[in-house]
Amino acid sequence: MVRGMSLEQKVGQLFVTYVHGQAADEQHPGNLRDFGVGTPAEVVAKFQPGGVIYFNNSSYDNIDTPRQIAALSNGLQRASRIPLSISTDQEMGIVTRIGAPATQFPGNMALGAGRSTEAAEQAARITATELRAMGITQDFAPDADVNSNPANPVIGVRSYSGDPALAAEMTAAQVRGYQGRFLSRTAVSATAKHFPGHGDTGEDSHTTLPTVDRTEAEWSEVDAPPFRAAVAAGVDSIMTAHIRMPRIDPSGEPATLSKPALDLLRRNLGYDGVVITDSLAMAGVRQLHSDAEIPVLALKAGVDQLLMPVNLELAVDSVVAAVRSGELTEQRIDRSVLRVLRMKFLRGALTAPPVDVDAVDAAVGPAEHLDAARRITDRTITAVRNDAGVLPLRTRPTAALVIGWGETTTRTLAGYLGGTALPTGSTPTQAQVTAAVQAAANADVVVVLTNALSRQAAQQNLLTSLLATGKPVVAVAVQNPYDVAYTAAPTWLATYSYGAVSMEALTRVITGEVVPTGKLPVAVPGPTPYPFGHGVSW
User: Fold this and answer.
1) Which one is catalytic: 143, 278, 304, 483?
2) Catalytic position from the list 25, 61, 204, 206
3) What is the pLDDT of residues 464-518, one digit of tens each?
4) 164-169, long-range: CB within 8 Å, 24+ apart, which pairs?
5) Are the C-beta atoms of 136 and 73 separated by less than 8 Å?
6) Has 278 been annotated as catalytic?
7) Total-model pTM
């Protein structure tokens, strides 16, 4: 295939782009603005990229129903001379592009709390099967970062654990689950991210260029194990991080553009699969160079595929020009094209027929997948404290009050408990606190949902005020578990996820239907610290 390709076709394979719209032949003003053509199919026909990525936000608007996604995938494939890798970020948990009716799981840190590699592999296998039924051949998952910094603003519960060994075990299990058997048409290419490790940052690379001040020895001990495990499990692709590691590369370049950083992957870990950048629209990679320079520098550093350049035409032209000027050799381009085509071949994407649009609704979210998701999620809930013996409730509550963070989350849990929801948001006002205290007077149990309470004095005030009512109070950290170290609440649970599947499992724990078995996958610092592995039961 490579021998028969022009230089422009080869360079096209090195790019993964977004498109605007839900139908391949649907005109969208975003495509005209960004690509000079009207439809997603015309974008693919014009640029012949190696892949396309789907998003569910209003900017790109690719995702509605499984049937629509399958039809979009078929339409894009028809427009491409070489079969596309069609991808999305279906990490599950807080990064989920395709919601129900697709089967939902609670995310990586919840799986880490559950401690079962079998469950992690099964979750990935189910996710892969449903993605492939919709024509998606690559998942930008799993997140292999070790969340060693509790203040990390962008990773957090996307990580399995703060423990390198546990994160490595879970990463390998999910790579196996996503990728399945050779040439399987129910599997997808997995993508371990964000190399060399985004877990120790205190800043978000979407908005700035974070620095990780690790030596190579420290990196090898803390951040490398999950990526090493992914390589050993045969991961198809690895995504780079836009982070600066000055002790590994003093030049100040982000890892995406750093040959010393990517040599850790190619030479130290012996990886010969596809290396793909994180989005080239992120601020972390755009601080030092122009959008024309970035793709060329990434390829020179050792990258194979370039994700979402700000200006696709400019990026393609810059790489073609670099080859024609001798800055890059065509042999260098060929190496990356071969890796990209090999990845597609391994998952059967080069030879797969169009997906069956009429069969997709039965393949996405069937009863057996939903049952498995419930069983897996049940074992992730962690009881951190039950000092007052409030749980499990002796009888089903008749007047449960669910208060706190998350409009949808509080209402979902209240629905499962048969109670009342009183959302108060991230920073409840004193008026909301007063209303919550008044509402608690008529409740037989009060469940307080927190998210980033460790950094929000207003949430701490809400919880403390409700504890003072003397009512039975169950505090629940529904995202990062670091909240549990704050306030004197005698009953604390951690779910690591605020999705409906986690709220359903939480209900079963509160009412005694399920005994909690989850263990903290991170150490929790703070006024009342808890060690890695802590968890109580009854």
Assistant:
1) 278
2) 206
3) 999 999 999 999 999 999 999 999 899 999 999 999 999 999 999 999 999 999 9
4) 164/221, 164/222, 164/223, 164/224, 164/225, 164/226, 165/225, 166/112, 166/115, 166/521, 167/112, 167/225, 167/226, 168/225, 168/226, 168/228, 168/229, 169/117, 169/229
5) yes
6) yes
7) 0.96
